[in-house]
Amino acid sequence: MAVLSVVSEIFPLIKTGGLADVAGSLPAFLKPEGIAITTLVPGYPAVLAKIKDVVAIHHFPDLFGGPARLLRATAGSLDLLVIEAPHLYDRPGNPYVGPDGENWPDNAIRFGALSAVGAALGLGEVPAYRPDVVQAHDWQAGLTPAYMHYRSDGGPRAATIMTIHNLAFQGQYGPEFLERLGLPPHAMGIDGIEYYGGIGFLKAGLRFADRITTVSPKYAEEICTIEGGMGLGALLRDRIGDLQGILNGIDETVWDPSADSLIPGKFDRLSIKPRRLNKHSLQRRVGLPEDTETLLLGLISRLTWQKGIDILLESLPLILGTGAQVAIIGEGDRATERAVRDAVAAYPGRVGCVIGYDEELGHLMQAGADALLLPSRFEPCGLTQLYALRYGCVPVVARVGGLSDTVIDANEMARAEGIGTGFQFAPASVEMLESTVLRVAALWKKPALWRRIQRNGMRTDVSWRRSARLYAELYRELTMPEPIRLSSGRVA
């Protein structure tokens, strides 16, 4: 079965967050299920520089303001279709913002083009590739099902899935973009793409896709509420029969502490002691004294309100009062970055940070920190806690979304049964984070119990295997022929 994944970033070609990791790791786990994933991605400079076996399979004389080519290519084990459109994607900066940190003013057009090409493929307008299913990821691909709806002539087309990785990012643009996006005037209605007087990319995908998925069962429940739905809860409740939460997984060949080339001390569940080398290396990188005996709490995240960074910073006096160190890695809101730097200045030798991100630091945090803090106010799934489980870095998480689904709180009963893998708290507040860190600090002083929690986490299956089976079942369900009801009433 051929499935087209329409996405704005994919690891290892281009990455700003977990979306790229998911897009890059899931295809390999679907191959044993008989599912061939081809990923459609914009031709950013970083993408064009890394692809191989390039063949042009289609030409667009005018793709929203300029000519474009559709390239079939590979990158490692990934099968790709790349949109080579220099007028849209040949720019510095990351996929969404320029070097000045501001969003590109024509992002509606840039990602409308991504959706339009995805729709052309789904409608069979490119003879060289005809998918059975088109899966659009997040708002950047949200217009794909809408284009397919408005451009369809009633003939055969691919089935469609809209996958929500984070409902907070919805892709809302003014109505003045309607004509430039090539959408008909009647699309601007409540039953179309209109959203609070403008164009809603994600809303359009949720309205017109055959099925909707999101990245954890708990988050699927949360987004159907008024608070969690962020303006789209009513639509999601209306489509609840078409909504399914499927947990993210990770690529265990990339995230393997026993063979990780990005960390100095390789280790496994039976031999955890080499983690000390990684702890010392991490402490050096963030500007903390090297000390194996001190509890090192890490946070690696976008530095935003969603991630609860302010909750952590307000909790620092109590956290540091336990004798712990805190290491912070990430980038995000300028005000939050300043607040993190201020904390480092206020607690020298106790709080360390690196503003920014690279893959080596990401692996080093998981391999070196003793525990990972995730005080998120909401979290669709989260990948960092999955990496942490794999690397014996005990996750300390707010009980929301996928964090709730993937971490087993090491309370007294769970410890007695030998199943605790981390710590949960709710709500995401200063008081609850503080009380949970006190629990963490108490168990840190009991090495045998701490090692058991680490090993429980490292035994957890955080791969894509189970979730890949669920996706494969969904694809098959969508493409299964309608049953023929015979005159006798039997189904053929």
Key traits:
18 strands; Rossmann fold; nine-stranded mixed β-sheet; single chain; 492 residues; alpha/beta; 19 helices
Secondary structure: elements and pairs:
Layout: E1 2-6, H1 18-30, E2 36-42, H2 45-50, E3 52-60, E4 68-75, E5 78-84, H3 86-89, H4 107-122, E6 133-137, H5 143-151, E7 159-164, E8 172-173, E9 194-195, E10 198-200, H6 201-208, E11 211-214, H7 217-222, H8 226-229, H9 233-238, E12 243-245, H10 275-286, E13 296-300, H11 309-321, E14 325-330, H12 334-346, E15 351-355, H13 359-368, E16 371-374, H14 384-390, E17 394-398, H15 401-406, H16 412-417, E18 423-425, H17 430-444, H18 447-459, H19 465-479
Parallel strand pairs: 1-2, 1-6, 2-5, 6-7, 7-11, 11-12, 13-14, 13-16, 14-15, 16-17, 17-18
Antiparallel strand pairs: 3-4, 4-5, 8-10, 9-10
Helix pairs in contact: 4-5, 5-6, 10-13, 11-12, 11-17
